[in-house]
Amino acid sequence: MDHAADAYRTDLMTITRYVLNEQSKYPESRGDFSILLNHIVLGCKFVCSAVNKAGLAKLIGLAGETNVQGEEQKKLDVLSNEVFVKALISSGRTCILVSEEDEEATFVKPSQRGRYIVVFDPLDGSSNIDCGVSIGTIFGIYTLKDAREPTLDDVLQPGKNMLAAGYCMYGSSCTFVLSTGSGVNGFTLDPSLGEFILTHPDIKIPQKGKIYSVNEGNAKNWDGPTAKYVEKCKFPNDGSSPKSLRYIGSMVADVHRTLLYGGIFLYPADKKSPNGKLRVLYEVFPMSFLMEQAGGQAFTGKQRALDLVPNKIHERSPIFLGSYDDVEEIKALYAAGENKE
Ligand code: AFP
Question: What is the 3 state secondary structure string of 96-108?
C-alpha cells in the first residue's frame, strides 16, 4: 500500500491554506489580502452555483438593461455583478471597485474601506451562457499606495503595478487560477467539499505552442502584421507544421487553454475597432499578468501590455498573449513595419 500517496490525497491544499502559507512568509502581513481573496472566492462559488443552475432556475434571459458598452445584459451578469460588489465591499478591505458592468467606479465609504483596489469582469463571455459554453470571472488587484483619500488616478495605473490577478472559469469543472506575483497556481472546486483544491501548482506555459486563437471573421479588417502572422500560422515557411485554430469566444476559456497547452491568443485592432475589443483594466491586464508570471508574454501591437497606462476605466486595447516564442514572432512583424498598407 502506498501510504505516501494516501497521505498526499488526504492532505488537501485548499486555496485558503495556500494563501495563509504565502502570508506567513511576510511576518508584517496583517492578513488583509487573505480576507479579500476569501471574499473573491466566495463570489466565484456563488456565481459557479448560479451558472450551473441557470437553465433550471430560468435565470437565462434578458434583464431588460444594457451595460456601459451598450450590450444587452443577461440576468446572470446582473446577479454576478451584485454578488461581487457586495462581497468585495463587505470584506472591509477595498477602497475602489471597477466592474465591467458599472459605468462609474465605486468608491467604498470610509467606514467600510480598506487599502485594495479591485478591477473585475464579473461574468466574461456572457453571450455564451445560453449554449452552456465556459464563461468566467476575471479580476486584478492593486494597492492604494498611501493612507489618503482614493481617487480615480489610483485605478488608472499600468498593469505591472498589480499586486495579484486571476480568473475563475465556470466550465466542465470550476477552476480558479491565481497569481500573487510569484508564479501561477490553479485550483479546482471540489463541489462535495465546497473548497478549491490546488490541482495545477506552478503553471508554466510551453515556450512555443501549436494553437492560435482568434476571431477570423474579422480578417478582412485586420492590419498587416496580424494578417501576416495568421497566414504564417496556416502556411509556415520554415518547414514546421501549421498551427491548429481553436476559438471559443470566451476569453477566460481561450486564455485558460492557451496557458495550459501553449500557443497564442489574439484580439487585434482592426479597421472597425482600432483599439480592439477587450478592456484594459479587467481583461487585458489580469490575463497579461498571469501570462508573464507563467513565463509567456503579452503585447499590444505597440508595447508590453503591462506597461500600458489607461486613460479611462473602460479603455480597450488590442492584445496578443501566450507562449513566449509565439508572441516574439508577432512582435517581430510589428517591429519590421508590416503595418504599412
Ligand atoms: P461577451 O461577454 O459579449 O460574450 O464577450 C466576450 C469577450 O469580451 C471575451 O470574453 C472574448 O474573448 C471576446 O469578447 C470575443 O469577442 P468576439 O465575439 O468578437 O470574437
Answer: EEEECCCCCCEEC
Query: Measured in angstroms, how far is the CA atom of residue 249 from the centroid of ligand 1?
Result: 5
- Quick check: 309 and 290 in contact, CB under 8 A? no
Reference 267, options 234, 305, 232; nearest CA is 305
This prediction's pTM: 0.92
Q: What is the DSSP letter of 143?
A: E
Sign of CA dihedral 279, 188, 129, 41: negative
The strands making up 195-200's β-sheet, listed across from edge to edge, are 106-107, 94-99, 113-124, 135-143, 164-170, 174-179, 185-190, 195-200
Q: Which residues contact 24 (CB under 8 A, 6 or more apart)?
A: none
Measured CA to CA, the distance from residue 297 to residue 327 in angstroms comes to 6
Ligand 1 center to residue 278 CA distance, Å?
Answer: 8
- Cβ of 71 below 6 Å from ligand 1: yes
Q: What is the pLDDT of residues 298-327, one digit of tens each?
A: 999 999 999 999 999 999 999 999 999 999
CB atoms within 10 A of CB 104: 11
The three cell numbers locating residue 256: 485558460
How do beta strands 297-299 and 319-322 pair? antiparallel
Task: Give tens-digit pLDDT for 76-113.
Answer: 889 999 999 999 999 999 999 999 999 999 999 999 99
166 contacts 290 by C-beta, under 8 angstroms? yes
